[in-house]
Design brief:
The strands form four sheets. Strands 5-8-11-10 form a four-stranded antiparallel β-sheet, with no helix packed on it. Strands 6-7-12-9 form a four-stranded antiparallel β-sheet, with no helix packed on it. The protein has a two-stranded antiparallel sheet with strand order 1-2. 49% of the residues lie in helices and 11% in strands. The protein contains 19 helices and twelve strands. The chain is an alpha+beta fold. The radius of gyration is 26 Å and the shape is globular. Helix 8 crosses helix 10 and helix 13 crosses helix 16.
């Protein structure tokens, strides 16, 4: 809430898109879908604009299958970024409040839960660095709230809706899905143990299954991408002193000096003194409500410490399927702060429940001071979102690859009709050194023949390429982009293959039109899973809305509302 209020005067468009380091990486992941849809009227399956060509929909950090593509299409790139940030903050705050009410908390305690989590520096500092994939965590409180609503009402549709929102944590980014799944385990285990009922497990299973089904349009291509090009193992750690500074120091700025094995911005997660005190009160006030979140906080704290020993918790976590793709340990501060936020809300509840009127007044003062403190400490990091754009190379009438600088400039090159051969220093990328930029030695053009003959490009779009070929003998047509599963010949007589890692087509003698198309493999299965999930959800909603209204009960252990 506090960060949201201050973000208004800070998030201003200065005339150019961010072009340095991570800002360049994640802005490009928005620009490519926006431009592909707006200019070519194609779904952004493929990106010829990065690393010499790579899957767009299969990029784990990409944001393609999301309703938040609409602000970009309606208002343009810079306003779209600002609207995306604002709307996700609003979603996160509203979800936190609803979650608090599902916990049976008073309105003030629910406000504390809703406001503390997004006001911490983990969000503002990551957004300031350009990490827009962290915005998908906005759905996490909603997923937990819908899980509790499903248990409370004894209806399945809230769980199915929770699966849809959980899917968005994956389709809009990557970390949100993992954090949501692990945070979900806390109330699931608690309700199963305290209630001695299998219903929480069933609701959680439905959320998980429908999250996978709804996200299959991105999940299936992403799984293939990670299998072909796994992420590099990122070892990181921090000391207890670094933990204390990252969580409790009021110096929460991107410019903060290095404290651990990575930049301070990767570890920051400010917890102000008022909220810390409220969390301590909450931890001891109602053990049945607090115990699951205390244990969850301890687990996330150990993951947050990182690779401190060969037996560290994060080392064991990497042994799980796809666990090797876990990024920097500092990012576990996000679920850690969430657990502290729940405990702080329980602390507000404990003060408000006291017979004396001073308890509620003290809680109001502490929440107000905590939010103002977070406002002053954390929100200024949003000013880093729009830094000066990178210098743009000369424009090109026809698309061609360009060797850009190592620290950014991808978006600047893309906007001038060029692909960026250098993938930048951060984010998910592939480094193959196959594609050549026009400003590099060995560049032979964007399309050429290995033998004698003539070739002329007749159509260029991200997903579809067409060429007029005239050759006297069998030869190969080579395209200056990386070969990847999903490219196929849809017109003409030829067979697609990899020529030194580049897209190539065997062509027979004669004059013909060769057209190739990219469609992700197994995409029809993804369409089918999404359709089935949607149809089942609508069917369950129609059936359950005819049932008798449920009795108002509280499924969470402890004091009733």
């Amino acid at each position: 809430m506090a960060s949201w209020l201050l973000a208004g005067p800070i998030l201003r468009f200065n005339g150019g898109l961010p072009g340095d380091i991570d800002r360049d990486v994640f802005m490009q992941l928005r620009w490519v879908p926006y431009y592909t849809l707006a200019h070519f009227h194609q779904f952004p399956f493929w990106s010829p604009y990065k690393c010499g060509g790579m899957t767009m929909i299969g990029n784990p950090e990409g944001s393609v299958v999301t309703p938040f593509i609409l602000p970009y299409l309606l208002f343009g790139m810079a306003p779209g970024v600002i609207l995306e940030i604002f709307l996700h903050l609003a979603i996160m705050f509203a979800g936190g409040y609803v979650l608090g009410r599902e916990f049976g908390l008073r309105p003030l305690a629910s406000v504390a839960l809703a406001a503390m989590f997004p006001s911490s520096s983990w969000l503002s500092i990551h957004v300031g660095q350009g990490h827009l994939n962290f915005l998908s965590i906005a759905y996490t409180p909603w997923v937990l709230a819908l899980f509790l609503a499903s248990c409370r009402t004894k209806r399945w549709f809230p769980a199915l809706l929770g699966g849809l929102l959980c899917a968005l944590t994956l389709t809009e980014g990557n970390y949100g899905f993992v954090f949501t799944a692990m945070l979900m385990a806390i109330p699931v285990i608690a309700l199963t143990i305290f209630g001695l009922s299998p219903r929480p497990l069933a609701a959680a299973l439905l959320i998980g299954v429908f999250a996978l089904a709804f996200s299959s349009l991105k999940l299936i291509p992403t799984a293939e991408s990670l299998r072909i090009y796994p992420r590099e193992l990122m070892i990181s750690w921090q000391s207890w002193w670094s933990v204390l500074v990252s969580l409790f120091s009021r110096y929460q700025d991107i410019s903060h000096p290095l404290m651990a094995s990575w930049f301070f911005s990767e570890y920051a997660g400010y917890i102000g003194a008022p909220f810390a005190v409220l969390a301590l009160i909450g931890a001891v006030s109602d053990w049945r409500k607090a115990c699951p979140w205390v244990l969850g906080g301890i687990i996330f704290l150990q993951l947050y410490r990182g690779d401190t020993s060969p037996d560290a918790l994060v080392v064991w976590l990497r042994k799980l399927p796809l666990g090797g793709n876990i990024g920097l340990c500092g990012r576990w501060v996000v679920p850690l702060v969430f657990c502290v936020g729940v405990l702080a809300a329980l602390g507000v509840q404990a003060l408000c429940d006291r017979p004396a009127i001073w308890g509620a007044r003290l809680a109001l003062v502490m929440v107000t001071v905590g939010l103002i403190d977070a406002w002053l400490v954390c929100a200024p990091n949003y000013r880093y979102v729009f830094r000066s754009p990178a210098p743009a190379p000369p424009g090109s009438k026809t698309f061609r690859q360009y060797l850009n600088g190592p620290t950014g400039g991808m978006v600047a090159a893309n906007q001038n009709n060029m692909g960026a051969v250098h993938c930048g220093c951060c984010g998910y990328h592939i480094v193959l050194d196959r594609v050549r930029g026009y400003n590099e030695p060995g560049y032979r053009g964007e399309v050429y023949l290995l033998g004698a003959g003539q070739v002329k490009q007749t159509l260029w779009t991200p997903n579809r390429l067409s060429y007029e070929v005239d050759v006297a003998a069998p030869t190969s047509l080579v395209i200056n982009q990386n070969m990847y599963p999903g490219w196929r010949v849809v017109q003409g007589d030829g067979e697609i293959y990899s020529e030194g890692g580049l897209i190539a087509v065997h062509v027979p003698p004669g004059h013909q039109q060769i057209e190739i198309l990219y469609r992700p493999t197994h995409i029809l299965w993804a369409y089918l899973f999404t359709f089935l999930a949607t149809a089942v959800s609508v069917g369950v909603w129609l059936i359950e809305k005819r049932l008798e209204p449920p009795q108002p009960i509280s499924c969470w252990p402890g004091k009733e509302r």
